[in-house]
């Protein structure tokens, strides 16, 4: 994300045009590129910090499933945005952040072991505001990415909750 932002800034590359444009052929590239592109430094930082923290929690405590959870949050969130979001250029990694946050919150609820519940409570205390982010509030913010990430996170939590080793 930082490299893409640097390249766009330093070389004047118009990379923001490669976000997710729902239901367009050109917008398909955004499924892979959209989370790497950010509108400004504040947008980049506001996605970087939770992505680093939630990613660290995911991979540290759930190393066997961390990669799959991350890839689902990245790919399926963006596919849902491409399929169902309003016509706009959706950029940024917040859909991935929401996917990870909702996974970590709901995984503990569905799994019901002490460690997972403890992680759920910590993530909920730190990122409980994500529940408000799935609602439309600002037309410049892709609430659809947030909502799609939340759905992917919950479905992924349900999928992995019954596995013995995670």
Automatic annotation (TrEMBL):
Residues of the Peptidase S54 rhomboid domain: 32-162
Principal subcellular localisation of the protein: membrane
Short name of one Pfam family: Rhomboid
Highest taxon, organism lineage: Bacteria
GO cellular component: membrane
Compartments reported by the entry: Membrane
Membrane topology classification: Multi-pass membrane protein
GO molecular function: serine-type endopeptidase activity
Keyword terms: Hydrolase, Membrane, Protease, Transmembrane, Transmembrane helix
GO biological process: proteolysis
Stored SUPFAM superfamilies: Rhomboid-like
Residue spans crossing the bilayer: 91-110, 117-135, 141-161
Ranges in coiled-coil conformation: none
Protein name: Rhomboid family intramembrane serine protease
């Amino acid at each position: 994300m930082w490299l893409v932002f640097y390249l766009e800034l330093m070389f004047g590359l118009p990379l923001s045009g490669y976000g997710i444009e729902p239901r367009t052929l050109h917008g398909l590239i955004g499924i892979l590129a959209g989370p790497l592109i950010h509108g400004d430094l504040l947008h980049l930082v506001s996605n970087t910090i939770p992505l680093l923290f939630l990613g660290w929690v995911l991979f540290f405590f759930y190393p066997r499933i961390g990669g799959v959870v991350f890839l689902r949050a990245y790919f399926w969130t963006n596919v849902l945005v491409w399929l169902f979001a309003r016509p706009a250029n959706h950029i940024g990694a917040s859909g991935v952040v929401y996917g990870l946050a909702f996974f970590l919150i709901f995984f503990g609820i569905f799994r019901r072991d002490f460690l997972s519940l403890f992680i759920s409570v910590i993530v909920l205390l730190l990122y409980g505001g994500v529940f408000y982010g799935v609602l439309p509030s600002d037309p410049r913010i892709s609430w659809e990415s947030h909502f799609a990430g939340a759905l992917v996170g919950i479905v992924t939590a349900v999928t992995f909750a019954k596995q013995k080793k995670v």
